[in-house]
Design a protein that fits this description.
The protein is of the alpha+beta class and 654 residues long. It is built from 26 helices and nine strands. A hairpin with a 2-residue loop joins β7 and β8.
């Protein structure tokens, strides 16, 4: 399936899931190309492998691991005589794609029957940055033109009307609107206010890369990534670090300390995560627009898949099966067990992940696992370490939809085309946020495992480069798009996808962080929604009672905790601990971890003892739904950001 845009029919090959196997070498498909150590002979007719186009060209590195892994994958499929069903799918036109984009962004009620009731969307739009608004305007204009061509009778808002109120008045945070800043003012936000300094605090260690300015290695999460890209678009800053491919040459990207706390994926309540998803989609689109890279969500193709078993089963269905066995399971049990089996022997085995298991044994183990895994009768002593590694890779690439999803697989691949490494990392951060929860959780476990393998590189000889080149074909060469054109493309994007894989492994802790500017936009949305809800309720009451309620509410806002709590003091609840409530005096240096430690120091034999790593302080209500705080959050700074919140200590929800 070609990635070129436009309306056309595409033939996808769906592999019948009845016969799956491991890394089985053997016969080739008709016309299958040969991969050997002479790279110039590996490329199929019509394909050219241009390494110069990737950020990290890896010219000085041997790509043998990548080619061997790709050969194993193709030989496995070529040796499996599976029934193939050709599905002809007509891709939607550009208007339909953009209409789907608006739906995913939570803006579908701007059109159709619900267009008159778009208050929620207007609140949402009022919190967007200038580059985000531009991205929305572009999609709305495309959809509007498409609808008019179809002579649809929907009430279609003019794109200028959607943002007229915001453009004619002050921007979302109350400051005067202004144009996007140039590189000379790169420390200013989109609204003209001064942005945070790039420099780290004095308590942070100095960069190991002394020749790199801290501003180029620190990731600014307070200003929109697209706004930063717009500021630097015409500057030479950031056009560094394009050469080399060694592990030590990757920038030492770090997150400056945020006094109001770092927010990780999983720290926010579902209602706020839904807003985060919409904002991340718009922000990613705006970033790609600014950088001149086409961003298109691919339509997930429905193909016939297995409805039970282990290999070739949709991830969501597999988790449904597993949750019947182990309630609350978020990672497929077979996936967890294969990783545990690999680690049980030792991570110091040379060639781990690179050397395939014995083909006949892997195929037999695969079939035996299908029959016995859930029964608990499978004998894991028969599984060799390299066999388990082959089964793990097989599981990933045999998913009916890729782990990185059909919708975003191309966007992940296109990360390699972004101008700077920092922008590549920013795009990956947003893409990880956009993944479905099951895919994201499984990817996280995979990347953590791969890092543990790399940690033993002195013995297993598997460096970051080696692991990335072995794993990239398994994540990026999805067989659902099988065609000769894609096989040729595999060569063109080989080094690029290996580098995207390197980034995901190297910077995985950063990728699971929700940027502060997005969290702040969620806070603004919640605040604006609360104001409008209060206004609507007030309109339904009598004038006298409305005035009374407003006065009462203002008093409550001035004392958001207990009425007897003095200014500068918060009331912290801990229903699961022996001390269920405590008044805490706020100081400049008081952190969330200090409050949790103070509660845990209260001993009682009547309450179950909880360890510090099991409970966290939560920020609940006010301008956020619910947020789990990291221990280094400075409470006075956070209180000033959300004075109406409640503070509760409780175990983190699974």
């Amino acid at each position: 399936m070609s990635w070129r845009s436009g309306s056309r029919a595409v033939v996808l090959t769906a592999y019948h899931p009845s016969s799956r196997a491991g890394d089985v070498p053997g016969g080739r498909r008709s016309g299958q190309y040969t991969m050997n150590h002479d790279h110039s002979k590996k490329i199929p007719d019509g394909a050219s492998f241009d390494r110069s186009g990737s950020q990290d060209s890896l010219d000085e590195l041997s790509m043998d691991d990548y080619w061997k892994e790709l050969e194993n994958i193709h030989e496995t499929r070529g040796n499996n005589h599976e029934e193939r069903v050709a599905l002809v799918v007509k891709e939607p036109d550009e208007g339909e794609l953009e209409e789907e984009w608006l739906k995913e962004a939570g803006l579908s009620n701007l059109f159709g029957e619900s267009s008159g009731d778009s208050l929620e969307s207007m609140v949402f739009l009022s919190t967007l940055t200038r580059t985000q608004k531009a991205a929305v305007e572009k999609r709305v204009e495309t959809v509007t033109q498409t609808m008019r061509k179809r002579n649809k009778q929907h009430q279609i808002p003019d794109v200028r009307d959607i943002f007229r109120l915001q453009n004619d008045s002050k921007v979302c945070d109350g400051s005067e609107p202004s144009t996007v800043r140039t590189s000379e003012n790169k420390n200013e936000t989109h609204d003209g206010t001064k942005g945070p300094n790039f420099s780290l605090g004095t308590d942070e260690p100095k960069s190991l890369l002394e020749d790199m300015p801290s501003s180029d290695t620190d990731i600014n999460l307070e200003i929109s990534f697209a706004e930063q890209a717009a500021n630097l678009k015409d500057s030479s800053v950031g056009k560094m670090y394009k050469g080399g491919g060694g592990d030590t040459l990757l920038p030492n990207f770090r997150l400056p300390k945020d006094k109001t706390g770092t927010t990780k994926i999983g720290d926010l309540a579902p209602q706020d995560m839904k807003k985060v998803y919409s904002l991340a989609l718009i922000e990613l689109t705006a970033l790609y627009d600014i950088l001149g890279t086409e961003f298109k969500q691919q339509k997930a193709v429905k193909i016939k898949t297995k409805d039970s078993g282990l290999f070739g089963v949709p991830l969501s269905l597999l988790l449904e099966q597993d949750q019947k066995k182990v309630p609350g399971t978020k990672i497929p049990l077979i996936f967890q067990k294969l990783i545990a089996q690999i680690e049980e022997t030792t991570l110091e085995t040379e060639g781990l992940l690179r050397i395939p298991g014995v083909a006949t044994r892997v195929k037999g183990l695969c079939q035996e696992l299908e029959a016995k895994f859930y029964e608990g009768t499978f004998n894991w002593e028969n599984v060799k370490q390299h066999d388990a590694a082959s089964l793990l890779k097989l599981f990933i690439r045999e998913l009916p939809q890729p782990l990185l999803t059909v919708e975003y697989l191309k966007a992940f691949q296109d990360v390699q085309n972004l101008p700077t490494r920092k922008q590549q990392l920013q795009a990956l951060n947003l893409l990880v946020i956009l993944l479905p929860e099951a895919n994201r959780d499984t990817l996280k476990v995979l990347l953590e495992f791969l890092q543990r393998v790399i940690d033993h590189r002195d013995k297993n000889k598997m460096t970051l480069k080696n692991v990335a080149m072995v794993m990239a074909p398994n994540l990026f060469t999805f067989h659902g798009f099988g065609s000769k054109a894609i096989e040729q493309r595999e060569f063109v994007m080989a080094a690029g996808t290996a580098n995207v894989m390197r980034f995901m492994i190297q910077y995985q802790k950063l990728l699971w962080t929700i940027p502060k500017f997005i969290v702040n936009q969620v806070r603004k949305q919640n605040t604006e929604s609360q104001k409008k809800e209060k206004k609507d309720k007030a309109m339904k009451k009598l004038l006298k009672k409305m005035a009374y309620d407003r006065e009462k509410h203002e008093k409550q806002e001035k004392t958001p905790n207990d009425t007897d709590v003095p200014q500068g003091v918060i009331r912290v609840q801990a229903p699961h601990l022996s001390k269920v409530s405590m008044a805490i005096q706020l100081t400049e240096e008081l952190k969330a971890g200090d409050i949790v430690a103070r509660f845990l120091s209260q001993k009682s034999g009547n309450v179950q003892t909880l360890k510090k790593e099991e409970v966290f302080l939560y920020e609940i209500g006010g301008n956020i739904g619910e947020r789990c705080l990291d221990d280094d959050t400075y409470m006075k700074d956070l209180y000033q950001l959300n004075p109406n919140a409640e503070w509760v200590i409780k175990p983190k929800q699974s």
